[in-house]
Amino acid sequence: MYGKDFFARVPENFFSIFSRNLKEIYVDLIFLVYQEYNQRIYTLSRDHIIELFTEYLESMGEQTWQVDEDSSPEEAGKSAREQALQYLRRLVDSGWLNLEPELDYTFRISIPDYAIVMLEAMNKIRTGYRVEFKGRILSIYQNLTGSEGFSYVALQQAYESTQELIDGLKSLNHSIKNYTEKLLEAEDVRAVLSQIFDVYQTKVLGEQYYRLKTSEHISKYRVGILKRTREWRSSRDEIIRQAAVMVREKRVPDTGAAENLLYEWTEYIDTSFGREMDRLLSEIDRRNARYARSAADRLRFKLHQGRGAGQHIYTVLAYLGKLAKESGEKTLVPGEITGFIALFPQVAVDNHSLRRPPAARQTHKPQPLRAVAVPEEVRRKQLQQFGSRVAEEVTVEQVNNYVDNILGENDVCPIEQVPLNSRNQWVKLIYIILFSQSPTANYRLEGERGETVAIKEGSIEVPNLVIKRKGRKR
Q1: What's the CATH number where 117 sits?
Q2: Beta bridge partners of 28
Q3: Are 88 and 163 in the same domain?
Q4: Do 101 and 166 lie in a common domain?
Q5: Is the pLDDT of residue 305 over 70?
Q6: Alpha helices (runs of H) in 272-328, residue ranges in sequence order
Q7: Distances, alpha carbon 183 to alpha carbons 127, 170, 195, 285, in Å
Q8: How remote is the C-alpha of 423 from its chain's centroid?
Q9: Distance between alpha carbon 11 and the CA centroid of its chain, in Å?
Q10: Per the confidence metrics, is the pTM higher than 0.85?
Q11: Which Pfam families does this chain map to (predicted)?
């Protein structure tokens, strides 16, 4: 199914130029046209492209482009311009370029849309392109929570940015294995360090990914993003209104398709910033930690390679050989040499031996402990201290009762209206805030986090939150 759809839009011989002996030259020529395409707003002159091809072939030398598997013996010895014409014809025949005749009998060259997409992908592969994570989540947050947040255009932009973010993170996750393999192929310490710092840290993780874990952490914007997507899905009137706008602007054929598209966008954003994002970041962290272990092991191996006992003995013997050559074989060995290598017969195992037999672990023989009697007075005092500590503990049930007394017959009460005349009341306010996230609390706090309101003639500031009963009092 997919292959049929693909080749319905792309010529069957589209990739044939990559199977030739001169595939690298074909790629260079295609990118020459692609660079001209990026610099101009009009189609390209055929004569100009031929001049570019000719100049490129002349710079490469005849031996580079004279050998082609399809060339006949009589075609050998063509000039660079003639060869450029032949390459251009093959690019046109394979569907990479189009020739468009003009009224003055000249030709213009254009690039088909599918070839542009392919060239963009090839250019990203060639340059090692990585998705920019910087500001990506902030852009999604601003699109959804801005003044135009309830427009399908803002939702679509947030959806597309979310797709790019998720695709970039998935690509990063999958590419870590390739960099681990390149690390293991490094032959010396310099190459290992280059793979770690020049390639992996700069091109793979770098400061952009770490910014997602620090200053632009997902949790900083997650609540606002999820809140707005759920507002979208719960606002049926807004969905209908935006679907009508999409139909009026001819983005979709009917309102049913528009509504399905809006729900699909919100569902994707909601899912992406939920558990999927956490799992993806955790997987990247896990694979990154594995890469770090591999890098440390590889570096340690390269640093210690050739420095073991064998190399140590080789160095000492080389020194002794040099000494024997200079002073004679019967010359006494310097006394300090015994500190580097043991040149005596081993007759007994002692603390200076290279290897010592393992000592047997002693068998544990448990002994009964003597029970110490605690005086009744000490026991009573300890129980009193324990009871007083338990009595001072504040439970969620006690805070629920206190909140019920504050609310009375009402369902909401701003924190600024909570009685705060004694130390005990201030302590209870702290517990109200702490226990508000408890699943057994019968109230919740609503309002913008971080905002404060002044009380007691401006001498004290408390959070600008509202205590709201979870269930209406019967």
Answers
A1: 1.10.10.10
A2: none
A3: no
A4: no
A5: no
A6: 277-304, 309-327
A7: 20, 21, 6, 18
A8: 48
A9: 36
A10: no
A11: JetA
